[in-house]
Design brief:
- There is one protein chain.
- About 50% of the residues are buried.
- The protein is α/β, with parallel strands linked by helices.
- The longest helix is centred in the C-terminal third of the chain and has 17 residues.
- Helix 8 links the parallel strand 6 and strand 7.
- The chain has two domains: about 90 residues, Aspartate Aminotransferase, domain 1 (Alpha-Beta Complex); about 220 residues, Type I PLP-dependent aspartate aminotransferase-like (Major domain) (Aspartate Aminotransferase, domain 2), CATH 3.40.640.
- Bound molecules: pyridoxal-5'-phosphate.
- Pyridoxal-5'-phosphate (PLP) binds next to helix 3.
């Protein structure tokens, strides 16, 4: 009898647990009441995140979902239409709050320039021209870099610039969902600020692969942040001594360069799965999407090997993160190989 193998959790890069260094920083954080006046550690994280993102100011939020909602609430009025990539987090994973709270009518853009991005021409067509008073007014473009459901796909700065030019020409505001902007920056070898050029607002997460248990930011002008602070309070996101959480974000920011290791592990996993006959495109960052004929059967068979993966339509998703090492990837491939598990069988 062999013992049950240790489960290897590839479901998301949100499954990481704070390590000793991070927990020590959290325990030692200087704190204050961030609703009454200010928490010094939250203030420090906001300053540092704004600088790294190349934005004038930033506001801490408990989640990326709240960060996106705050930005969309600032940009949209009822009767507005906003454009976002098909499968975007703001369209599929935020329970429609962009529509029912922020008040915008969503319109999906196709990934016709490659995973995660539209061509400038398609964007121009989708914006169209301003119609009569009884038609929707297209007022916002919402980008996502990296694009989660497209497999951690990266939009490079030149394509970003072309999309920005079209949106600006048509008078649209631009929000960037940068939950994993750190991953895009590391994959491209550019600073995160190179990927926010020209946007009005950007959101970013510290809890996606960087090891923080909680925390995001939404960044923009000081005027936007002033409004965003009111919206955050309205949504119940005004936490008091949040410095214990922001301290984790500061440690996370120190670790951005280490994401390269997760990207390398993702490439190795994808190559190994392909060797075993799985249909897997080469990943751009830390997300591996494997096409399988029967998703429930594939996730079940993987789970029986102690490998946790996330089911998507027609695909199984493996996300690499700092709690999965190169050795864990080899162990995963070994378990799949020796079990003779066929994809989807
Ligand atoms: C995870 C994610 C979010 C939301 O972050 P939460 O902190 O889980 O609310 C937003 N956008 C994208 C692309 C994400 O992957």
């Amino acid at each position: 009898m062999t013992s049950t193998p240790q489960p290897l959790d590839f479901r998301s890069d949100t499954v990481t647990r704070p390590d000793e260094t991070m927990r020590r920083a959290m325990a030692a954080a200087e704190v204050g009441d961030n609703v009454l006046d200010a928490d010094p550690t939250i203030a420090e994280l906001e300053r540092r995140a704004a600088r790294v993102l190349g934005m004038p100011a930033a506001l801490w939020t408990p989640t990326g979902t709240m960060a996106n909602l705050i930005a969309l609430t600032a940009h949209l009025r009822r009767g507005d239409r906003f454009l976002a990539m098909r499968g975007a987090h703001v369209l599929h994973n935020e329970l429609g709050s962009a529509a029912w709270l922020a008040g915008g009518m969503p319109e999906p853009l196709e990934h016709d320039a490659g995973p995660g991005r539209p061509t400038a021409e398609a964007l121009e067509r989708a914006i169209g021209t301003v119609g009569p008073y009884f038609t929707l007014r297209t007022s916002l473009l919402c980008l996502e870099n990296t694009h989660n459901s497209a497999g951690g796909a990266v939009t490079p700065p030149d394509e970003h610039a072309r999309l920005l030019a079209v949106a600006r020409q048509a008078g649209l505001k631009v929000h960037l969902d940068g939950a994993r902007i750190w991953h895009a920056a590391v994959a491209l070898g550019v600073p995160p600020a190179a990927l926010t050029v020209g946007v009005d607002t950007v959101s970013a997460c510290f809890s996606k692969g960087l090891g923080a248990p909680v925390g995001s930011v939404v960044a923009g002008t000081p005027e936007f942040v002033e409004l965003a602070r009111r919206t955050r309070q309205m949504l119940g996101g005004g936490v008091r001594q949040g410095g214990v959480l922001a301290a984790a974000g500061l440690v996370a920011l120190d670790r951005v360069d280490e994401l390269a290791e997760s990207h390398e592990n993702a490439r190795r996993l994808a190559a190994g799965l392909a060797e075993h006959g799985w249909s897997v495109p080469a990943p751009e960052t830390n997300i591996v999407l494997a096409e399988v004929p029967d998703v429930p059967a594939a996730t079940k068979s993987l789970a029986s090997l102690g490998i946790l993966a996330y089911p998507l339509p027609e695909r199984v998703r493996f996300v690499l993160h700092r709690d999965l090492s190169a050795a864990d990837v080899e162990e995963t491939l070994y378990r799949i190989k020796t079990s003779r598990a066929k994809p989807g069988s």
